[in-house]
Amino acid sequence: MAANFPQCLFLLIFVAFCSYLVRFSSCQPSGYSQAVATFYENPTSPGSGGACGLENDVASAPYNAMITAGNQALFKQSSECGACYQVLCTQDQNPHCSGNPIIVTLTDECPGACNNDPVHFDISGIAFGKLAKAGEASQLYNAGRISIFYQRVACNYNTNILFKVDKGSNPNFFAVTSEAVDGDGDLSLVEIQTSNSSWIPMQRMIGATWSVGIQPDTQKPPFSLRLTSETKQSVTAPNVIPDGWQPRSIYKSNVNFPNNL
Length: 261
Prior knowledge:
Belongs to the expansin family. This protein has about 260 residues and is of the alpha+beta class.
């Protein structure tokens, strides 16, 4: 029996070490990366679409306040506006975290001190509370700043793309914001076709809002719009902006991207 003691001790240490490795490896879910998360203003804040041009539309469908701002690692000079992320926090990170993932859309920039972290999400107050265990959201709000895990995922809004004419649009200048974009969520190119023109590239004005100069005498509505995603997929919304369009009006298309990356 005494002769077998070192062998038994080694086996016990080996098993304990393996258990540690299993626990350690399970701390970070497969496919996820680490980040820091804070939340907008207060627990009932829907967040903002300001830096992406979505304004207060983020509070209602299809976003329903499930949005986030991001530091430059995520925002990338607004080119990533519309990207979707699955985020979660575990009890190892905070005892009040549920470990259940939520999906948020990048609709704003978190500047300044957010860039002190490699990756920083500033989540709407409403969405932040959904990371908590049932009945423990207040404790998570009190923490204010937590560690999370995140991964990029495809957007899926269960609706077709919505086009909101920018408030600054007029007969000589047309700007439009694309909302509820599935798949990549973010766009690399938007083009417009008037009733008697070929496709004209638009310029990114702010985030998800793209603009172009219009010659009202020769470039008349209806307008068709062609969107190209980050991964170079394209969809065309024919005649989606009607004659008589108005600034701030929203026009629903009959197209969207596939729900995958």
